[in-house]
Amino acid sequence: MADHGADNGYLLDNQQAEAGIRFDALAELFDPVTFRHIDRLGVTAGMRCWEIGAGGPTVPMGLAARVGPDGAVVATDIDTSWTESALGTGSDTGTDGNIEVLRHDVAADPPPPGGFDLVHARLVLVHVTDRAEALRRMVQALRPGGLLLVEDADPGLQPLLCPDESGPEQRLANRLRSGFRELMAARGADLAYGRTLPRLLREAGLDDVQADAYFPITSPACTVLEAATVRQIRSRLVAAGIATDEDIDQHLANVATGRLDLATSPMISAWGRRPAGPPAP
Fold first, then answer.
1. Does some domain include residue 45?
2. Which of 19, 113, 117, 189 is least surrounded by CB atoms within 10 angstroms?
3. 54 lies in a domain?
4. Is residue 88 part of a domain?
């Protein structure tokens, strides 16, 4: 997941300590879904892959294992610090085995050169203001016959943190989640983006477009993710008048009990194949 710094419009800054906790929780929740799609699409030895928004290392590492020493993975993000640390590259442009880590803005920078058999982004474009241009560049980077897999949230499709709003703890949780959505929308996030992906991939000229959706309703990782997220944005919630410090302390205490059934926004996965033939314009 691409965690853009505050100056780029994203609320959840990679430089905060909670970012690593969030990456681990997101990997636990969504890696099985991502790799189910990657394996069904036939990502195999020798392929060249572009992983966009590689805030954490698990997807680049999983792709690298699948493409092997004859393949390559280019992992990019605006802030690659967590991926670099996990892979031991230690620089803005680093290499670990068959993984190359690059600092890169998908909506502003040209795609990495060379063309790709797979381009993948997870929980990235919903936060990118110029998401149409980002998607255009992702399609442009595909080799003829190459695969695009885009997985993104649709907070508007299922807006509740606690779908079973059975008491005051759940109502408080949902109020804070509503405030979080307000902050996201104010910074340019499209809260209904995920559901548009099948149409957008077809309009981009891809063939064999399909999609599905997934979200957990109760998971220990949801609890970890919620606590880390709220700690990251608490000052913004308070500054915007959405919640008081007392509200947030109470919510974190409620979350810590482990008795709330916490959900995520649905993650919609959509995929398609670039037709064989001349390069896209």
1. yes
2. 113
3. yes
4. yes
The side-by-side arrangement of strands in the sheet containing 116-122 is 93-96, 99-103, 72-77, 48-52, 116-122, 142-153, 267-273, 207-214
pLDDT at 17: 61
Token representation of residue 28: 């636990």
Report the C-alpha gap between 221 and 31 in whole angstroms. 12
Asked whether residue 105 is domain-assigned, the answer is yes
The model's pLDDT over 79-104, given as tens digits with 9 standing for 90+, comes to 877 666 666 554 444 445 899 999 99
Whose CA is closest to 228, among 52, 7, 9, 28? 28
Q: Which residue matches tokens 């709220």?
A: 230
Beta bridge partners of 259: none
Annotate 152-189 with b (16+ C-beta within 10 A) or e (fewer). bbbbbbbebbbbeeeeebbebbbebbebbbebbeebeb
Number of domains in the chain: 1
Cβ neighbours of residue 91 under 8 Å, at least 6 residues apart?
A: 84
Please state, in angstroms and as integers, the Cα–Cα distance from residue 281 to each residue in 26, 67, 136, 204, 236, following that order: 35, 28, 10, 11, 42
Q: Which domain holds residue 68?
A: 6-156+189-216+266-273
- What angle, 0 to 180 degrees and rounded to 10, lies between the N-to-C axes of helices 18-41 and 58-67? 30
- Residue 255: enclosing H or E segment and its boundaries? helix 245-256
> How many angstroms separate the CA atoms of 160 and 118, rounded?
33
- Written as six digits, the tokens of 265 are 């926004």
Q: What's 100's domain CATH number?
A: 3.40.50.150
Tell me the residue type at 166.
Answer: S
Q: What's the rounded Cα separation, in Å, for the pair 88 and 180?
A: 34
Closest CA to 141 of 110, 165, 166, 170: 110
What pTM did the predictor assign? Answer: 0.89
